[in-house]
Each structure stands twice: as structure tokens, then as C-alpha cells.
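stuck on this fold:
=====
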Amino acid sequence: MNKIFLVLLLFTFVSCASNPKYKTKNLTEESSPVKKRVLRKIVPKKEESTKFSQKGMEEEIKTWLGTPYHWGGTTKEGVDCSGFVLKVFHNSANQKLPRVSRDMYKVGKAVPRDKLKFGDLVFFQGFSNKRVSHVGIFLGEEKFAHASSTYGVIYSHLYQSYYKKRYIGAKRVLN
């Protein structure tokens, strides 16, 4: 009985040994120029993998819609306007920005309102002062995404009277 058990046990171990079904070629071997060219196209360069993607940013913004406003917040539990912009740019474009809107206004290239593109930052002033106190992300067709202190993360229109009166300018921080 023990011999049968040992034979079965030995058979089990032998049958479980790795036996590759396919042979693989070492990629470091010399290969034809055609194969090298194909491999270069399949494997993206580092620069390409961190490139800005409008679709990626749109999807990231959608995940934040409805997030409640919380002054100083940077999470989906609660976020303020600059925290929202900071997180969207970091998560979708690997872009680092300053933490507060007035410092964000100091970076990038100024863009006239009629030349705005998707991803440009749009800035607004407060009620009683002329300083930057609010920021959003331009989406196109005069719309922008932002964290409203009343409604949380929403889409708004640049020409709504509230925002039209307080618009200060825009900056392009993405290439």
C-alpha cells in the first residue's frame, strides 16, 4: 500500500513540473531591424506615458462631481476649489501645482478668454477684494468644473452673472 502511495505521490510531483508550452526569445538578442522597430512602437517611451490626455482628465473630473465642498479639503470626502484642481491635475496629468488658487495664478502662461482650451485654469476674485480667491478647470464651450462652496464639485458657465463679474483671467499650465 505504501509503495502505491509513493508511486502516486511521485507521479503527482513529476506531472506538476513546469513544462513551457511556448518557447520565448530573449529580447536582448540581436534581432532584425523590423522586429526592433515593432518593439519600439509597442513599448511606449516614458515621456509618452506621462503625456496629458484630455479624456483622462475628463474622466478624473467626473469622478469628483458631487463631492461636497470643505475648505482646505483635498479628498472625495470634501474638497475646496484649489484642492480639486490640484488633485485632478496630479491624478490625470501628473502635473504638480501650488496648493492655493492665488499661487496657482502665478504659474503658467496667461491666456485671453477667447483663446481658452480644455484644461486651462480659470480664476475669479472674491466679493470684497480684487485678489484671486477661486479657481476652476476650463472644459470648453464656456463651461468649467470647480468646487463651489454651496454645491460642491459642479460644472458652471463662465458667463453666468456671478462668474462673469468676478472673472480675473486664465492660465495655461499644460502643454
Remarks:
- The first strand starts at residue 74 and ends at 75.
- The chain is about 35% helix and 20% strand.
- The beta strands are 74-75, 78-79, 109-110, 121-125, 132-140, 143-148, 152-157, 167-172.
